[in-house]
Structures are given as C-alpha cells and as structure tokens.
Prior knowledge:
This protein is of the alpha+beta class and 439 residues long. Among the domains are: 59-158, Sandwich (Immunoglobulin-like), CATH 2.60.40; 230-435, Rossmann fold. It has eleven helices and 22 strands. The strands form six sheets. The chain has a six-stranded mixed β-sheet, with helices on both faces. The chain has a five-stranded antiparallel β-sheet with strand order 1-11-10-5-7. A hairpin with a 5-residue loop joins β10 and β11 (143-149). α5 runs antiparallel to α6 (293-301), α5 runs parallel beside α11 (422-435) and α8 runs parallel beside α10. The radius of gyration is 32 Å and the shape is elongated. Residues 173-189 and 376-380 have low confidence and may be disordered.
Amino acid sequence: MIPSRALVLLAVVPLALAALTLVDRTVLWPMLAADAAIALVAALDAALARRPLVSVRRKAPRVLSIGRPSPVTLELRSTARRALTVAVRDDLFEAAEAPELPLAAELPARGRAELRYHVQPNRRGAFALGDHHVRYPSPLGLWTRQIRVEARSPVRVYPDVQAVRAYELLARQEREQSMFRASRRRGGESEFERLREYRRGDEYRSIDWKGTARRQKLISREYQLESNQSIMLLLDAGRLMTAETGSLSLFDHALNATLMLAHVAARGGDHVGLLAFADGVRCFAPPAGGPRAAHRIVQAGYDLHPELVETSYAEAFGALSMRVRKRTLVVIFTQVVDDVAAGELLRQTRGLLPRHLPLCVLFRDSDVDGLLEPARERGGGASDAELYVKGAAAELMGHRDRLIRDLKRHGALVLDVGTSELTPGLINRYLEIKARHLL
C-alpha cells in the first residue's frame, strides 16, 4: 500500500493540532481523537483494498529485431464493482527500452481494457519480459494499491530482418534490381531462364529480336546464374569488432549483412554456412540450402556477441579447412589495424587458395577518413596537433591500403566499405562473382 495525497493532507490536521498544544493544552484530546479517526478510516480503507481487483494478460511476439520497436499488448480485466483508474508497468529485460511505459487506463466496473506499448531491444540474445506492476486507488482513495502480477514472456532478439522482408517483397514483385544492382559482365550469362519485357538497365545484347518482332515491343532474355554452390560466412567476434558505429557494433553490422546475403544466396539455390570465431571457434553451421537456410544462420548466430579477446585467424581457418572440403566462397568479416594481425590474415587467406575463393570484408572508419579531408578555411594555418592527427590518420590508411593490395595480389577478393554501404556492396559483389563464374 502506498499513501495517497488525500491521506497525506488528512495527516496535516492532527499535525496542526499538535502544534497548538504548545500554547493550549486543551487541544490535546481533539488531536488524539483526530489521530484515532484518521487511523481507523485508513485501516478500514486498506482492509477493503486488500484483495487484488485487476488481472493482466500479455501478448508479445516471440521474435524481436534488434533496434526495431515491436508492439506488446496488455489486456486488463477488473473484478471491482466500481470504476478504476489503473497505471501499469512491465519489467523489461536489461537491453530493452519502452518510452511509452507506464500506461494508464480507465477500467469500468467489472470491465476490460486493452493497452499497447512498443519495446525496442538493443542487444541480441534470449531474454524475457517480466512481471506486471499495477496501481489503482483504494475505495476511499486514501491508499494506492500496488500489486505485482507474475508473468514471463520469453523472447528472442534476432538481427534486423526488415531488409530481408523488404527484399522478399521486391522479389515477389520482380523488382529485385531496385534494391541491388548486379553487374552483368562478359561471360555473365549462364543458363537461359525466360523471356520478359525489356527493363531500363538491361544490356542491349540481351534483347531477343525474334520475340520483339513477334510481340511488337522490346523483349529481353533472362538467364539464371549457376546454383548449388557453397558459401561460408566467417564472422570475427574479437575485440576490434566491438567498435560501434551508428549505435551498432561492427559485429552487428556484419551479422545483419550476413543474414541478407544468406537469404539472397539460399533463394538463388546456393548452400550457406556460418563460422564465428574470436580466440577460438564460437559456432559452426555447415553449408546447407533450402528455404530455411537463412533461418538456420539466424538461429546459429542470434546470441553471439564480440568479446575483448585477440582474434585467432589460425583457429578459424584451420577449422574451416577440416570441415569444408568442397570449393567454397569464403566471406571473412573482420577488422585489422596492426601489422601482426594483417600478416596472419594474409598468411591464412593465402592458405585457402586455390581450393576456396576468399572474399575479405574490411570496414572503413568514416571518422579516420574525415581526418584526411581538408580543414575548413580559417585565418592561419593548421596547428601542430592537427598536423600530427592528420599524419597518424594518413599512416593508418596507408597501412590499410597496403594490406588490401597484398590480399588482391595473392588472389583474394576484397570489399572495403563503410557500414552504411556494407549490405548492398556485399550483395553486388556476390552477384558479380556468380556472373563471372569465379566459383
């Protein structure tokens, strides 16, 4: 029970009488009578409010997407013979926020109400929404009754799947190219699939002139890329992947791109697998195809998080060599800033060739890139500190460029992008590899 404002104001009356007793002793008995009356009424009101009058039932999705608000519905039912003004709040898990809580509702006598709020998780993994906390006034309004309704709703927070849903919608409408643009190069045609109307962006050599003459409008030939190939996604979960950009860690950005690539590849008939590693192998899902291939990737990696340990490429590449024998496109998501790690990455990547085709995905740091841009014009030249910072940034970028050149020289493919261009850049590179028959 929580004292209400009305009870606090009533308590002021005997307090004022107590102050008067200092000058008039005859006020003592009225003061004691007021105390007894208020205590009796408050006790009676508390006794009447002892029985819980409100029950709560929650409807929440079992799967949430990181960084995306998801609706949660609360059904309130009253057993009271009077109308109630109710406030309700839910226990959230640590990595979630719900700015709309607490919620308020007017419950009629023996009535019901439905409330809704949105929960936004900021961390992947398995969690649970906890108990309900409900407050409503006592019959005389002297107390605020607070009850705890036990509840537990398990939820799983997955990587952001909104991009996958958007792609699937576009795919059903046959407009995949509005999201991702695959480069059609010489040798990019594999097996004839169908004829369709010419669309802006199609190559002129894909026009079927017989079909065009027959239908009196431009008709293009569409080819399907080779399927049933293997793709292995290697996720670095070491300390450098804990760096955050755009409110998400580099690991989360990589996981979101992994999910999208797995969906696109599985939809095209390829087999997709996952290997996450840090100082050792964290999880392994062998390459598999079918409509649930992307779901398997999500299940394997939804509760993985980067750790403050040094990355061991030898452990990861050794496990890959032992478990994957078929020629595979190996996509490595990692971040390198020192010579030791760069040398190990280069050495292990060279060991994959020629059996596998490695594609190294490196994350560009937009803050470091910004340091190399010319400063705004102002009176006087740059300070010594600014010159030192710019020199350090240039040295870091030079080191990175040398690593990229060495990787390419030894036969590896490299995708060097910022987090905002990661997913479309990765999908375009995958489609380009397929079109050029590099696998």
